[in-house]
Design a protein that fits this description.
332 residues, alpha/beta, Nucleotidyltransferase, domain 5, 5-stranded mixed sheet, 44% helix, globular, binds adenosine-5'-triphosphate, binds magnesium ion
Length: 332
């Protein structure tokens, strides 16, 4: 079955065609560059950009996939969580398409989409597994028992991991969103240059990133302009080490506690090189697998939404066309 996926929850307009929840036939992603000058996503501007680009991106996705709309068996679109205006553009477009062509429709939880990126990329992933969701808006450890069966073991009490990467990147003058640029700069720095605080002693699987972000800001303020210029890469590397160490420590502990053999990383921060390397290493030491999506399936994309929609359709059937955008939609 060919699924058309649509994702517009934030500042990426993306449309994809995925076959049987396993094979990506096309996955067109347009990241809205306009927000860079504001240093963050402006919701109203994002909605307007989605409106301008959704039709051409949809046409490009069909063209690149080599299939026609008549061959599409399912339409899936993100209904939340995300920004309500942007969500409404993709969701309304998807519902209109499904209704006019009498194609079954499935609304998708964006976080379930991030989880599905791993199912799409790793066909032998065990049904029962643990996933670390680390994105621009979320940081949580989730035990997965099957499609739609999730137990959240813990989440962040304040900022998300991706948000902390973006804020520190901004402090270091790397632009927005700066997670990937910070990762790159950190490779040239010394992770042991400065020991930033690691919030590990709080409740078991809860995370906290606001203290770390403030510690970096205070450290940067204490430096002279010359010292800052000299140590930018070291600060990036030291921040990244603190941020990643906590994620790795808690994920390995949860994997042992919950007795799972497969652990996945989901969401944009799954692209982080230190997180991928360190979590793989520590899980291998206890005989567990660490899986993460290829780069293009880590940050927001419609292929993961198409895959999540397909799995949901197999298990629960089609959804309702009355489905509305839900900005704070929960995973559980
Ligand atoms: N290599 C990297 N290292 C660290 N962070 C990264 C890297 N690449 C991307 N990111 C971060 O990933 C985040 C984007 O991820 P994603 O697109 O999943 O978030 P989102 O969709 O905004 O949030 P959510 O999925 O929670 O709604 C940004 O914060 C970005 O800086
Ligand atoms: Mg996302």
């Amino acid at each position: 079955m060919l699924t058309l996926g649509i994702e517009t929850s934030c500042d990426e307009t993306s449309v994809a065609v995925v076959e049987d929840g396993r094979t990506v036939r096309s996955n067109v992603i347009l990241s809205q560059a306009i927000h860079t000058k504001f240093g963050g996503v402006v919701p109203e501007v994002a909605s307007r950009e989605h409106l301008k680009t959704i039709v051409p991106i949809y046409r490009q996705a069909l063209d690149e996939s080599g299939v026609t709309l008549e061959q599409i068996g399912l339409v899936a679109a993100t209904m939340g969580p995300g920004l309500v205006g942007p969500l409404l553009v993709g969701l309304s477009f998807a519902k209109g398409l499904a209704y006019s062509r009498q194609i079954p429709f499935v609304p998708v939880n964006h976080l379930e989409g991030h989880l599905a990126a791993n199912m799409l990329a790793h066909h032998d992933l065990k049904t029962h597994h643990l996933t670390l969701v680390v994105s621009g808006g979320h940081t949580m450890l989730v035990e997965v028992f099957g499609v739609g069966e999730y137990s959240i073991l813990g989440k962040t009490r304040d900022d998300a991991a991706g948000e902390a990467f973006d804020k520190v990147a901004k402090i270091l003058g790397l632009g927005y969103p700066g997670g990937a640029a910070l990762d790159k700069l950190a490779r040239q720095g010394n992770p042991a240059y400065f020991r930033f605080p690691r919030a590990v002693r709080s409740e078991e699987y809860q995370f906290s990133y606001s203290g770390l972000k403030t510690a970096v800001a205070l450290h940067v303020q204490s430096l002279s302009a010359e010292a800052l210029e000299k140590h930018r890469a070291d600060i990036a590397a030291s921040f990244q080490a603190a941020a990643v160490d906590v994620l790795v420590e808690k994920t390995v502990a949860a994997a042992n506690d919950r007795n799972v053999s497969d652990v996945t990383i989901s969401g944009g921060v799954a692209a982080n090189s230190r997180l991928r390397a360190l979590l793989s290493e520590k899980l291998a030491q206890v005989g567990k697998r660490c899986l993460f999506p290829p780069m293009d399936l880590c940050t927001d994309n419609a292929a993961m939404i198409a895959a999540a929609g397909y799995y949901r359709y197999q298990k629960f059937g089609a959804g309702e066309l009355v489905a509305n955008a839900v900005p704070y939609l929960a995973l559980e």
